[in-house]
Automatic annotation (TrEMBL):
It comes from Leiothrix lutea. Pfam families: IL6Ra-bind. The gene is Csf2ra_0. GO terms for cellular component: external side of plasma membrane. One of its GO terms (molecular function) is cytokine receptor activity. It is found in: Membrane. The keyword Membrane applies. It comes from the Eukaryota. It is a single-pass type I membrane protein. The lineage of its organism: Eukaryota, Metazoa, Chordata, Craniata, Vertebrata. This is CSF2R factor.
Length: 150
């Protein structure tokens, strides 16, 4: 059987809340209901390859994503492999490498405080940089403040 078009498409991972990661994908264009996918990943070259333990499934029970916990970023270049089978035959594999720090969705800044004085008609706004699982210099962050008059 022709396996062209069975590889996954639109593979996307995002890290959120410091140590959680979701990876999702679309089934291949020619994937049938009995196509099943399996995600393997290696967080860094020094770590072992492991299979996803918490799959996201579609209405046919096909794996279309994975939820990870306790992910540490640092400067890791993680490797991902999604393979699988259809009707007992292997499908086209999909491989990708991702720099984990590039896919982190940062939390909001911490301890935001606003102190306004009527006499000077000025406000002082202070905050601390958001938590991340990797160390970043404070100069690496850019902030935007939107002030609305109410």
């Amino acid at each position: 059987a022709d396996m062209n078009g069975t590889a996954i498409e639109n593979f996307v991972c995002v890290i959120f809340n410091v140590s959680f990661m979701n990876c999702t994908w679309h089934v291949g264009r020619t994937a049938t209901e009995d196509t099943q996918y399996f995600l393997y990943w290696r967080p860094s070259k020094k770590e072992d390859i492991t299979e996803c333990q918490n799959y996201i499934k579609d209405d046919y029970g096909r794996h279309t994503g994975c939820r990870f916990q306790n992910v540490t970023i640092e400067n890791k270049n993680a490797c991902f492999l999604v393979n699988g089978s259809r009707s007992g035959q292997n499908i086209q594999p999909y491989e990708n490498s991702i720099l984990l720090y590039e896919i982190e969705k940062l939390t909001p800044p911490l301890n935001v405080s606003v102190n306004c004085t009527e006499a000077s008609r000025r406000c002082r706004i202070l905050w601390q940089q958001p938590r991340t699982s990797h160390k970043k210099k404070s100069s690496c962050f850019k902030y935007e403040i939107v002030i609305e008059n109410k």
